[in-house]
Write a structure and sequence with these properties.
heterodimer, A: about 400 residues, mainly alpha, abc type-2 transporter like fold, 2 domains, about 65% helix, B: about 240 residues, six-stranded mixed sheet, four-stranded antiparallel sheet, about 40% helix
Chain lengths: ~400, ~240
C-alpha cells in the first residue's frame, strides 16, 4: 500500500489540521486559558474598584455629616464658633503643634485663632484666622473646601452687618452676581470612569490570544518540535496562518467575556450606592464594540507572531509580548483626561481610532461610520502586512533551528 | 533513492559542508559515519528540505529538495536532530497530527497508526500524554509519526543517541525491517561499530567532506587495513568516534 502518491489535500485542509491541533493543544494548557480569563477580568474589576473607592470620597455628599474641626484659641472668637455650630460643625480642641499633626495626616484641617482676633475684630481690622492644611492631600480636599466655604460665608455675613450698621446697602460690594448652572449629568460624571473602558478592551485584545501564539511559535521551537513539524508537506504560510487562526478564538472569547463582565458590572451591581446614580450600557453598543475590536485582534496576533518568531525562547517571547498592550495604553489612558474628537488622522492610527470609536459607542454618541470603516480598513491592511512579514520570517533557516 | 552531488553549505564563516556526494539505494541501509561536527546533521537537514545548499543538489526519488520540496516531503520520513513532542497530546494524537498533515484521514489513518503502534510495541503508552515519557518512549513516538505516511525513504539522525541497550537493539531490528520492506534508509551515527553492524553502504564524512565510501569490504580494501576500526581511523585521521 502506498498512500503518498494518491491523496494530497488542499491548503485549506492543512490549515484546518494545524488550526485544530493548536486549538486542542492550547485548550489543555492552563496558561492559555488562565491568561485569557484573567486578562478579561482586569478591566471590569479595576473600574468597579475605582467607582467604589473614588466614588465614596469624590461623590459622597459631605454636608450631611458632622464636620469635626480642631480649633486652637476657640475662646478668642465665640461668635464664629457659634456660627460654625449652626452649620453642623463640632468644634474640638486642637492638638499641640498643629502643623506637624496636619503634615502627618492626622487631621485634614486645623483652625488657629490668634489672641488678637477679638481686638482686631472690634476695631474693624481684618481679623486673622489661620487654616492649617495640606492642599496636596486628595482625601482632605472635601473637608478643607467645606471649612473654607463656611469661613467665607461668615465673612460675608459680618461684612453685610457692618455695612448695614453704617446705612449702606450691602449690594454695593457685590458688583457681579455669579449664577452657576452646572450641566453635568450624573452620566457624564460617571464617564470619567467609563473613559478607561476602551483601553481595557484593547488590552484584552492583546492579551487574550497571547499565550497561544507564544506556545505555537517560540514554544514549538523551544520544545524541539518545530524542526520535525516543518518536514511535513505543508507550505510555510500554511503553518503561520493555521497557528495564527488558532489564537483568534481565545482572543475573541476574552473580548466577549470582558464585555459581558463590563455589562454585568454596570447593569447589575448596585453602583448607585457609591456614586449616586446607575451606569448602564446597552446590548447594541456591546455588539458594536465587539465588531470594532475584531480587526485589532488580527493586528495583535500578527504582531505577536513576529515577536515570538524572532525571540529565542518562550520566556523571552513572553517578556516582549507582554509589553505590547502597554503601547496602546499611553494614548488610551490620555483619553480618559483629554478627550480627542475623531478625525481622519487619528482614526488611521491602529488601536487609537478604535478606542475613540468605542468611547463614542459607550457614551451613546453618534459614530461617524465612514471614519470607523477607515479605521477598521487601515488596521486590517497593517495586520495583513504583519502576517506577511511573519511568513517571510518562517522561511529563514535560523528561525527553525533557533541560534544558527 | 537518494542522491546528493557536491553539497556545500556554510553558516557565517563556518564551512559546514564542502562537497558531499553520495548515493543511497532502495532496499539498502546507508550509514553516514563521522565524528561530531563532521557535517552529518547538515547533510540530513538539506535532504529533509529544511536547509538550502549553497551549492550542489540533493535529489529524493529524482525530486530536488529545494525546487520540489513538497514532493520530497511526501516521500520521506525523517527523525531529525530535535525530536520534540507535544506534551499535552497523547502519543496517538501526536502521530495522528502528522498523518493528517500528510492528507491521510479517517479509517485509513487510524489503521496506519495501529500498525505502527503494534510494530513499535507501544500499546501501553498510546493513549497517555507524552509529558514525562522516557527517552525510549519519546523516540518511538517520533519514529511512528515520521513513518505514518509510509514513506519510501527514511532519514534517521543519530536514532540511537541516548537510548539504553535494549532500546538500541530494538531500534536496529526496526531499521533492518525497513530495509527488508525495500525502503531507502539513511542514518547517521558517530559510532563505528553500530554503522558496521547495520549498513550495506558506509559514507565516512569528516570536516564537511566524504573521505571514503563503500561497503565494509571495500573500505578495508581501499585503506589497506584488516579491520574497520583501523580503516575508520585512517580515513578520518583521528581516533575520535570509536568509543561511546
Amino acid at each position: 500500500m502506498n498512500i503518498t502518491s494518491g491523496e494530497k489535500g488542499s491548503s485549506l485542509d492543512r490549515i484546518g489540521v494545524i488550526f485544530s491541533k493548536e486549538t486542542r493543544d492550547n485548550l489543555r494548557d492552563r496558561r492559555s486559558l488562565v491568561s485569557a480569563m484573567v486578562s478579561s477580568l482586569i478591566g471590569p474589576l479595576i473600574i468597579v474598584l475605582l467607582i467604589i473607592i473614588l466614588g465614596k470620597t469624590l461623590f459622597a455628599d459631605m454636608t450631611e455629616k458632622t464636620l469635626e474641626i480642631p480649633i486652637a484659641g476657640a475662646e478668642n472668637a465665640p461668635s464664629l464658633i457659634a456660627f460654625l455650630a449652626q452649620y453642623n460643625v463640632k468644634v474640638v480642641p486642637a492638638p499641640e503643634n498643629p502643623e506637624a499633626q496636619v503634615r502627618e495626616g492626622n487631621y485634614d484641617v486645623i483652625l488657629v485663632i490668634p489672641e488678637e482676633y477679638g481686638e482686631d475684630f472690634l476695631a474693624g481690622r481684618p481679623a486673622t484666622v489661620r487654616m492649617v492644611l495640606d492642599s496636596t492631600r486628595q482625601s482632605s480636599i472635601a473637608n478643607i473646601e467645606r471649612t473654607r466655604s463656611l469661613l467665607n460665608t461668615y465673612t460675608q455675613q459680618m461684612a453685610m452687618l457692618r455695612l448695614m450698621a453704617r446705612g449702606i446697602d450691602p449690594a454695593i460690594i457685590s458688583p457681579i452676581a455669579i449664577e452657576r448652572v452646572d450641566l453635568a449629568t450624573p452620566q457624564s460624571q460617571a464617564l470619567l470612569f467609563l473613559n478607561m473602558m476602551p483601553y481595557f478592551v484593547v488590552m484584552v485584545v492583546f492579551m487574550g490570544g497571547m499565550y497561544v501564539i507564544i506556545d505555537a511559535t517560540a514554544g514549538e521551537r523551544e520544545r524541539g518540535s518545530l524542526e520535525p513539524l516543518l518536514i511535513n508537506p505543508a507550505a510555510r504560510w500554511e503553518f503561520v496562518v493555521g497557528k495564527l487562526l488558532a489564537s483568534l478564538p481565545f482572543a475573541v472569547f476574552a473580548v466577549i467575556f470582558t464585555l459581558l463582565m463590563f455589562a454585568a458590572a454596570f447593569n447589575l451591581l448596585p453602583l448607585e450606592d457609591f456614586i449616586g446614580f446607575q451606569l448602564s450600557i446597552d446590548v447594541a453598543a456591546l455588539v458594536w464594540i465587539f465588531l470594532v475590536s475584531l480587526p485589532m485582534i488580527l493586528l495583535a496576533s500578527g504582531l505577536q507572531m513576529i515577536i515570538a518568531t524572532f525571540t529565542r525562547s518562550f520566556k523571552e517571547a513572553q517578556t516582549y509580548v507582554a509589553f505590547l498592550p502597554l503601547i496602546p495604553a499611553l494614548p488610551g489612558m490620555g483619553l480618559a483626561f483629554m478627550p480627542v474628537k475623531p478625525s481622519l488622522w487619528n482614526m488611521m492610527i491602529p488601536t487609537f481610532g478604535q478606542q475613540l470609536v468605542i468611547n463614542q459607542l459607550m457614551r451613546g454618541e453618534t459614530v461617524n461610520v465612514g471614519l470607523a470603516l477607515i479605521s477598521a480598513a487601515v488596521t486590517l491592511v497593517i495586520a495583513v502586512a504583519l502576517i506577511f512579514v511573519a511568513i517571510r520570517l518562517y522561511h529563514r533557516e535560523r528561525i527553525i533551528f533557533g541560534t544558527k | 533513492m537518494i542522491q546528493t552531488t557536491d553539497l556545500h553549505k556554510s553558516f557565517g564563516n563556518v564551512q559546514a559542508l564542502r562537497g558531499v556526494s553520495f548515493t543511497a539505494s532502495d532496499g539498502c541501509i546507508t550509514g553516514l559515519l563521522g565524528p561530531n561536527g563532521a557535517g552529518k546533521t547538515t547533510t540530513l537537514r538539506i535532504l529533509y528540505t529544511l536547509l538550502r545548499p549553497d551549492r550542489g543538489a540533493a535529489l529524493v526519488d529524482g525530486f530536488d529538495t529545494q525546487a520540489d520540496s513538497m514532493q520530497v516531503q511526501r516521500r520521506i520520513g525523517a527523525l531529525p536532530d530535535s525530536q520534540g513532542l507535544y506534551p499535552r497530546l497523547t502519543a496517538r494524537e501526536n502521530i495522528r497530527y502528522y498523518g493528517r498533515l500528510h492528507g491521510i484521514k479517517g479509517e485509513t489513518l487510524e489503521k496506519c497508526i495501529d500498525d505502527l503502534i503494534r510494530l513499535l510495541e507501544m500499546e501501553d503508552i498510546e493513549n497517555r500524554r507524552t509529558e514525562g515519557f522516557s527517552t525510549g518512549q519519546r523516540v518511538k513516538v517520533a519514529i511512528a509519526r515520521a513513518l505514518v505516511h509510509q514513506p519510501k525513504n527514511v532519514l534517521l539522525d543519530e536514532p540511537t543517541g541516548g537510548l539504553d541497550v535494549m532500546s538500541t537493539r530494538a531500534m536496529r531490528t526496526f531499521i533492518r525491517r525497513l530495509k527488508d520492506e525495500g525502503k531507502c534508509v539513511v542514518f547517521s551515527s558517530h559510532i563505528m561499530q553500530e554503522v558496521s553492524a547495520l549498513c550495506d553502504h558506509i559514507v565516512i564524512v569528516n570536516k564537511g567532506e566524504v573521505v571514503a565510501s563503500g561497503s565494509s569490504e571495500e573500505l578495508l580494501r581501499a585503506t589497506g587495513r584488516d579491520n574497520l576500526e583501523d580503516a575508520f581511523v585512517s580515513a578520518i585521521g583521528t581516533e575520535e568516534g570509536l568509543v561511546r
